[in-house]
Amino acid sequence: MRSRILARSFVSVATAVGIAAGTLAGASASFAASDTAAPKQVEASSADFTVAYQNFGLSRTQAAGVQRWLKRYWGYSDSVDGYLGTDSWKAMQRFLRANWDYTGAIDGDPGYGTKTALQRFLKGHWGYTGAIDGDFGAGSQAAFKRFADWCVRTF
Fold first, then answer.
1. Is there a contact between 117 and 134 (Cβ–Cβ < 8 Å)?
2. What integer pLDDT is reported at residue 136 of this predicted model?
3. pLDDT class for 52, splitting at 50, 70, 90?
4. Taking Cα atoms as reference points, which of 126, 155, 149, 128 lies closest to residue 58?
5. pTM (2 decimals)?
6. CA distances (Å), origin 20, targets 24, 31, 36, 149
7. Of 24, 97, 110, 111, most Cβ neighbours within 10 A?
């Protein structure tokens, strides 16, 4: 009888350790995958709609500041929610077309042309010192954050 109790205890402890290890392994993999330096793209889908946004490292507060600036000057008419989605990027593309040699479609896709024009703007006014190459890495993101912080303070 005593051996059965020990066996059950051992199985219970082994199961608990296995569950904990699996949870921790999943948590650490999830944590490692959440590198804040990498640009973020998030999609949530349902049968009726897909929502996508690209904040390029901005916090929701910073992105909301940019949206308020876009709303005031560049025809952004959606909600100020801190998610730079299609309508936010369309407004940004209008700004970039008017001032920073953006020649692509006003389609709300922050692709190569949008990123290079945005890099020109950030290089001209917000301390970006890297290449105009469409790679929105740490230097581009840091300059974008400086611009967004100004938007938060100003709008």
1. no
2. 96
3. confident
4. 149
5. 0.68
6. 6, 16, 26, 41
7. 110
